[in-house]
Amino acid sequence: MKKLLMANWKMNPKTEKEAIRLAKASDAANVVVYPPFPFLPAVAKALKKATLGAQDLFWEAETGPYTGEVSARELKSVGVEYVIIGHSSRRALGEKDEVIAKKVQAALSVGLVPILCVGEVLEEREAGRAQEVVDKQLRTVLSQLPLVAHGQLFVAYEPVWAISTTPHSSGLQSLSAEEAPAKSVELIRYMQHMVSTIQMETKFLYGGSVNLKNVQEVFGYDEIDGALVGGASLKAAEFGKMIKEVST
Ligand code: PEP
């Protein structure tokens, strides 16, 4: 399978018109675009080669009295194929592993491919707890999945300290985002082993300040099946160059 560039637009851009422009500039076969909910139909229409994703969902797969929530089936009905779950910005708002596990199950139940985000914050990394943190995040979700789901799941390892737009809780940054991809490979290998010991198969993405400068490095690791890109995916020219870089 070709390695994928996943464009997480977060709460951007401001208008549908801008979303359509950005979608057209990001439209390549190895790209998955994750716009905010209101722009999903327009972006779906604008994309000819790229695949559509959503940034979150609610765990109840059917319609119901859940004000403000969006179901897996509703997302599917507008052409969504992938869904990000447990992103660090949702975890920062209080989302817990148990809820994340329910969301992953809801996605799989209707045939959406979940991108399960895991990753430690700076203090956990500095305390030598990165592996323990990520192990728990992953194990809680995987232990609740039916065997048939294996292979249809992406795990995005995103060390929170390497995500460019996340305010760091400690002012002094002893680790830089440049070091993150190389450091991540060790942890991804650990997760691959962990997953294989419970007879599972998943694909792994790296996320955290991936841009034009480091995308080749990230795609060069055999352990990594693609990248989840935030900030750089909003810059049409840079993202267009990144697509070219990884396609040649
Ligand atoms: C993200 O939020 O998933 C992300 C990786 O963001 P950025 O590329 O801006 O670090």
From TrEMBL:
Main location per the UniProt record: cytoplasm
Top-level taxonomic group: Bacteria
Pfam family, one: TIM
Coiled-coil spans in chain: none
Gene Ontology annotations for the cellular component aspect, listed alphabetically: cytosol
Keywords, ordered alphabetically: Cytoplasm, Gluconeogenesis, Glycolysis, Isomerase
Enzyme Commission number(s): 5.3.1.1
GO MF term set: triose-phosphate isomerase activity
Reaction(s) the record says it catalyses: D-glyceraldehyde 3-phosphate = dihydroxyacetone phosphate
Pathway this chain belongs to: Carbohydrate degradation; glycolysis; D-glyceraldehyde 3-phosphate from glycerone phosphate: step 1/1; Carbohydrate biosynthesis; gluconeogenesis
Residues passing through the membrane, by range: none
GO biological process: gluconeogenesis; glyceraldehyde-3-phosphate biosynthetic process; glycerol catabolic process; glycolytic process
Location relative to the cell: Cytoplasm
Entry-linked InterPro entries: Aldolase_TIM, TIM_sf, Triosephosphate_isomerase
Family of the protein in this entry: Belongs to the triosephosphate isomerase family.
Subunit structure, interactors included: Homodimer.
Official protein name in the record: Triosephosphate isomerase
